[in-house]
């Protein structure tokens, strides 16, 4: 297994470097960042001044290496808009996004896994049909629209829940449901398929032949096998949620890094944007490595070759 | 002969009479297609949407861009104060909502179809190359996939649109360049499986060129899967475009993108919820239809996984 | 012939029907069989003849859509038909156990061999963890697996095919069942290993004196292991008898056909062509119309298709389902008069 780990880690490093280059270049693709920053009415002299001020007149690779060097020392630059250190800005907002992502994922898992297991043990029953309907529903629903509908129904008409802000736990309920319903379908379907395959397998037949109880057959034997790909998907979904929360954060006015990234893109605040893109990507890469580790641990065929 | 394995019962031929008139595969597929509820539903909605999009000018007398501030915020016909003149009401600029919905279908379908095609071409090519050649070539392909997966798609899309502008063309291109992962994964694995099949070895033994093998033997196998994935990615592209337009970094006004319509209606949604509800339902129905169509095509062309 | 107290399993009139869109599929029709302690019964037949369904029916492991009916189904005198699912489950693994064809897929890949063996012992309340482990180790040694302690901690994929099947056999012995059903236990194994496994089964039976039902399509296995044989075709029993009787004087044309297909030392003439049975198995849906083997039988005549053929006992333990073996049947008389046997 050590060799397997080193291999994955090397690839991860390579991917991380590539991603940092891409994140760095994203906003600079417009060609002239300095003009964009200086404004429409700037004179060429002012543009040149802006360029020099932000180090944009240096060769691109120098700018990149300079940024990487500083980043490794904990300095991600300063926001062009507020002049605060980017690290501070991210640190301020990462809590909200992390909380939203983890709550959404938990919500999704609490529905998806039991539903997937039940649907698999009673194929073609009403619960199976319910599960598949929810899956279609969750996948086809534009999540920003769902969020708005929730606000209209629960925030305004019924007045049960607050519609913006982050101070209170209840602020997170509607955003969690909104984001959760978009990741729930894939997890549910994977659990269901995994359980169907597991229950159909020979080792389950053996388990029944041994006279084991239904609970033991379902949970000790079938689910334990079916859950392996679900663990991977969960880790990957967390990474996806961190990057994809921008829409939900905008709808519910949550001050997370997704919303910050969006605002910064609009303002061409490139230090913030490149840092967030790279940060989110690194989280994703780390999560996939963790998921590989968990997988290797859970599946003895991988762990022991 | 019947073969029975637990819950799966496979009956291949009921009686030992030799059926020389067995239906052709195409006829079998046609019969399956016509009795598959999901496929029929999806195909009908898709067809209806395409027709509406194409014939919009003939179906409605209104211009989707014509503003009439004296007619603003009229509710739809099913709400009190609604009128039959404007079936779905009007928006904040006085534009007929049903008309904008119809023209909006053009945007969704164009972007959805275009992005799926671009993503399909990129993903399938890379998948074929990686799956067929294996080794170092495959390692490079997998590296590209990993890089793409690590990047936060929405944030990258937002940045690119900020840089390149929000025309239908640029949005289609950007989405196409960002959503090819599923194509690659499936194409690559199917190619790998096909690669080791006997008939490919036979073709190679005869000296057929690699390109010919890839296009002639491997690609047909992959085609079924691609069509299904293309439909799924089309649905995703439509949803993402709607989200981006909603945020303001997608299609620019006054073009009637459904996502943009929701965004424009947001300010009034507490008193005129239809402004937000109607385009959302349209997106929802179209996406469901595309998904069911894709699932249906998969069931019809490759029902091996079915009981 | 068999003493009542020695008899382990008695099955009478067992039928299994499966609900399919086209109707009711007769997987098994009216099967009788019995096995006593220390006796090996082989159920022979081709794929789809109902032998596996019969064994699953006995064990209570039929799929959801299958319906079981029987006049009698008793294990050690206990009536299985009146038991609830829970009570049936309590007997499985304890009094009756089953060995399946493919040991690789029949074992759970994520748990150790030891874990999977011990769990039967614990489930049926035979002792505590330590006792379970000791017994598992003992049985692994008994089936010929060396270094049993380390094997217990290994996972199925770490053992070779032969070792896995030995471990499966050890697993079925954990609670010392009186009946073991082995469904094609050697088919998935290398030929060289097959003989070893059969030898092991024979030894174990000699020592533990359990009743053994061996399901196979391989007549070589039958010749080697069987005390008695039940031949099945299209869900029905077509012939029964001792191994000797079946091989020396097969009565049903299907049995004869099977034997013609393989070379038998002492019987088959060198250089002669091996036989084959042309045609296909008839549909198992709908009522039985005449002899099920009729469309493939070289000796079929008009009466064969007229009505379902009953199973007749010509001597104690010797039955067959063929009109031709009926004494004084006009067709038989004319055949034996007109042609050489």
Protein described:
The complex is a heterotrimer of chains A (305), B (307) and C (341). Chain A is mainly α and 305 residues long. Chain A has helices at 2-25, 33-38, 44-53, 60-72, 86-121, 126-140, 143-157, 173-199, 202-209, 214-244, 246-251, 257-266, 270-298, 300-303. The model of chain A has no long low-confidence stretch (mean pLDDT 86). Chain B has a two-stranded antiparallel ribbon. In chain B, a hairpin with a 2-residue loop joins strand 1 (2-5) and strand 2. In chain B, helix 8 (198-206) packs across helix 9 (210-247). The longest helix of chain B is centred in the C-terminal third of the chain and has 38 residues, at 210-247. The two termini of chain B are 17 Å apart. Chain C is of the alpha/beta class and 341 residues long. Chain C contains 12 helices and 13 strands. Chain C has an 8-stranded mixed sheet with strand order 7-8-9-3-10-11-13-12, sandwiched between helices. In chain C, strands 1, 2, 4, 5 and 6 form a 5-stranded antiparallel sheet that branches. The interface between A and B is large, with 46 and 43 residues.
- Look at the structure and give the mean pLDDT of chain A: 86
Structural class of chain A: mainly alpha
Helix content of chain A: over 70%
- Topology of chain A as a string of helices (H) and strands (E): HHHHHHHHHHHHHH
The radius of gyration computed from the alpha-carbon positions of chain A, rounded to a whole number of angstroms, is 24 Å
Tell me how many strands of chain C there are.
13
What percentage of the residues of chain A does DSSP assign to strands (E)? Answer: under 5%
Widest sheet, order of strands of chain C? 7-8-9-3-10-11-13-12
- Give the distance, in angstroms, between the N- and C-terminal Cα atoms of chain A: 8 Å
| Average pLDDT number of chain C | 86
Distance between the ends of chain C: 31 Å
* Helix/strand structural class of chain C: alpha/beta
Gyration radius over CA of chain C: 21 Å
Oligomer: heterotrimer
Count of helical stretches of chain A: 14
Largest sheet of chain C, described in full? 8 strands, mixed
Largest interface: A-B, 46 and 43 residues
